[in-house]
Amino acid sequence: MTRRNSRLLPMAAAALALASFAITVGGSFGTMAADIAVPMRDGMPTLAPLVERVTPAVVNVAVKSKLDMEDNPLFKDPKFRRFFDIPDKMPPQERSSVGSGVIIDAAKGYILTNHHVIDQATDIVITLKDKRTFTAKVIGGDKDTDIALLQVEAKNLTALTMGDTTTMRVGDYVVAVGNPFGLGQTVTSGIVSALGRSSLGIEGYEDFIQTDASINPGNSGGALVNLKGELIGINTAIIGPTGGNVGVGFAVPTTMVKSVMNQLIAYGEVRRGQIGVQISDLTPELAKNLGIDRVEGALIGAVVKGSPAEAAGLKAGDVAIELDGKPLKGSADLRNRIGMMTLGTSVNVSVLRDGSKKDFKLAIGKPAEQIIEAKAEDRAALMGATFSNTEPSDKVKGVRVTNVERGSPAFQSNLRPGDVIVSVNRKDVANVDDFTAAMKSSERQTALFIKRGGEDILVIVQ
Known about the structure:
The protein is α+β, with helices and mostly antiparallel strands. The protein has helices at 14-25, 29-35, 48-54, 78-83, 115-118, 254-267, 284-290, 308-312, 331-339, 409-412, 432-441, and strands spanning 2-3, 40-41, 44-45, 58-67, 93-105, 110-113, 121-127, 133-135, 137-142, 147-151, 173-178, 186-197, 208-211, 223-225, 231-239, 249-253, 277-281, 298-303, 319-323, 326-327, 346-353, 356-363, 371-373, 385-389, 399-404, 420-424, 427-428, 446-452, 455-461. It has three domains: 1-270, Thrombin, subunit H (Beta Barrel), CATH 2.40.10; 277-363, Roll (Pdz3 Domain); 371-461, Pdz3 Domain (Roll). The chain has a seven-stranded antiparallel beta sheet with strand order 8-7-4-5-6-10-9. Strands 23, 24, 25, 26, 27, 28 and 29 form a seven-stranded antiparallel beta sheet that branches. Strands 11-12-13-16-15-14 form a six-stranded antiparallel β-barrel. The longest helix is centred in the middle third of the chain and has 14 residues, at 254-267.
């Protein structure tokens, strides 16, 4: 089972881990500790000085939110509702939850946490190690990486600096700080178990640091730091058959966090681009069949018409092996790195084509999006609105209302930008083609079932 609702990273005590390793390699405990720059106290290694520097930058995040109550299928029957005097709309249920966060800019009061910690929050309270509390505002969030940025107005804050995760190695020691089970600030330690974990289905964009540290409810958004006290990850998820820790935890690396944070500061959202290719991993069998003597890279299966990739000259069958001079491990690596770049960024893509390496330069473009504009012959009540497909990473699937002109028939029909139409006359619609067909086949008085924020809305269009 993959869990992503409150987690962090604890582990075996540092002294035990260090002692065990020292015995295994046959070296002296003191010598090994000195080699990795762990301070000594009374002849024993200690992480206390590191913890004392790091913990003031890790905060508790208390969240209040209102969530729609799940309806029993019987509640959808209007006769059942009338008979039992059940309101058409069940009142939202208030929920309280706790998580963790990391101060990343003391002067501006910026705090990193997980998107799922503050999603749909109505009130966010930050508690520092010194017990001071502040109300936080949301600068922005990105559910595809599960990263959010908060801000508080406070003085005398302590912030962590971001470390370079590109130089990390499996076996490096790490320390985690967070608020497990709402107990209060808790420190644990462990090692990096693996790097570049992806295709786990936890987030839309994955490049996780795996650690054997415990990740428990309340630790989401907490800090994973190296022995220099640098932030190297935001603790996010675990894999466990019972929802508890079994030593397989994941953190979003700061290389990804930094890119997301910069866009949240600049735009309040992440504006992802694409180059317009369909890609897959290059397996050993596929590489052999294609006459390629390597298995690293991303195989381009198709190039989208009118995309930056087509304009640059990329073709189906090319194998992307480098992006801006850095090797590509696979399709997930290419997708992650492109997805973290802002629109308009120029990139160099190196590919293998017919056994030769070729270089292409292209600019990151807007994601391919199918957009339709309502026409009078389709349904006059929709005039003034445009519609597009939802993104594959969206939790709600259907057709998004991308724009509505104020005062237009669509506006008067109670359509609003950001609405997601999930069904027409109770028939699910997955894309704009479904929506267009459903509207054309529908009689007048068409019922649109809409998700608007956390609410379910029924809109009747003539």
